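hey m, so remember when u said the tokens were messed up on ur end? i reran from scratch. heres the input so u can diff it against urs
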Amino acid sequence: MERLDADGLAFLVLRGPCHVDTRAVEKRPTTGHALTGALAVVTDSAGRVLLGRSRRGMLELPGGKTTGPEDFASAAVRELAEETGLVANPADAHVVTMLVDDSHGVPRLTAVVRITAWTGTLTNPEPDKFDRWEFFDLHALACAGDVFVPAALAIDAVWPGIIPGLPLATSYPIAAAQPPVPGEPAEAARLRAAMTQTVIDGGWAPSAPVQEALRTVPRHRFAPEVNFLAAYDGGDRAVITRYDETGTAISSVSAAWLQADMIEHLGLKPGAVVFEAGSGGYNAELIAHVTGPGGRVVTVDIDPWVVRRTRRFLTEAGSGRVTAVEADAALGAPAPLVPRGGFDASMITYNCWDIAPAWREQLTEGGRLVLPLEMGGYTRAVTFERRGQVLHALHFTYCGFVRDQGQQARTIPVLSLLDGGLTLRFEHGAAADTTGLEEALRGPRHEVPTGVTMGANAYFGSLQLYAATTLAGFCRLAAHQEPDEGVTGIAKDRDAPAIVGDASFAYLIHVKTKDGDSPQDKKWEWTVHAFGEQGPALAERLADTVRAWDRHIRAEANDQHADPVLTVHPAGTPDHALPAGDVLDKDLCRLVFRWPGRDVPPPRPVEHSGADIVTKGV
């Protein structure tokens, strides 16, 4: 005890013995409540994954339990050496995911360790446990036989989607830095060069940066579930990577020629910052390669599985200049990722019924937006340039993509006729009154030949788009049974352009007028079939549309058909502020089409009701 005095006041300082130091202590000996382990994911110079054929009759990854205070990465490296003879540095072992599942009622915790470099010769030091070790192509794993559940889950953590039908497990991805992992066979490089040449020869990749991107970015590594021939098909082939519960494709790696064409029309410069909606990884990497080391790509997708897959593939084979974000692309990029002044360019890689305002607002003045736009159900990849609040179309490419999801997902009104044998699809979003159509179908059919013919391999996509954007009451008539005496000329499960009136409608088909031994000898004529009291007038309107197309839009060369002048205005733009042309109203914007040879005073909206269809001229 110590006594201190301060101006007549006294206080005591008491000091006792020192506290016992804090210690970590164990309880009584524990019993096992869970299984823990680490699995090593290793690939060779050809990008194949290492698996062992175990004595239990299944394929397994190298791996096992941790020992003492050993970390998971070190355990994976140790097990790799003990089981295969391969040597890796723990610095090259990256824990990418922790998996939690159940084994016969016992919780199981598995660390997935991606090993990015190794040395040594593959051997089998434990023949009592494994028959042999070998490297497998990733696309072959879907039919490789039995795979140990933790190994299958670990492979899926690194390459999501390549092994189907996996049991449920909880995954905790770890945002650990990992360098890209090289490795591909010579066959992949050869096929990539051939694919690139096919795209160049087709005129889809005229610029050197896009050509070099196609030659360099390993497309097969973003579609590991298919073989190299399918991944590098230079034709009109997309690789479907995800289906919904109905079997509809909802995510894919698009055809290479189309990706190249859309990137070309972005007009990218070195260092550009680009927004991409509809992530898959490969297309974003192509863009990143074109923009160069100073560029950056923000890619967004609403599906968490797609985003996880994209991030893993970008980690495995990317440049490090692509950021993948889980979000509704209709809202644009998250604000912190939008550059000051907006993106230099934006690309949407799914079919869009509408154009989100965020895509315009986040785009710099003069920047380009390329998106697959649905107009009357017909899709074109349209290149737009932003000029203030208006988007001006610069180029059209015939294409097709998976449908949009999230806020922009839309159900097209479909009306059934004749017990489902026929359906009318109102692609503009509002269904016309179809009262009396079934009765009209039981009456006489009126036919009007247009006098407009075509030969084999003729392109008529411009006719479809012209009709969809200029005709009031436009819809599409689909047949779901073999043609009968009433509606003929439409093959089963195909459709035809149509217009609807008051208890009447007309549709357009092409009828063979000349046969021959070779395709060049054959010829077809566009013909209109119509039903109902107003059928003859509707048929003439549809026939006049075909003739106008033939005079002003059609060209001998398939790639020389005339495109409309198209501008896109915000949804609230009043009629008097729109230019002359045919107006197609969406929920979020107003499209104005001005076709060659068509004089339309401003404004004359395309109507979706058939009530006065006969009284308006073409």
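this time it looks ok to me. The CA atoms of residues 398 and 461 lie 8 Å apart. if urs says something different then somethings off w ur setup not the seq
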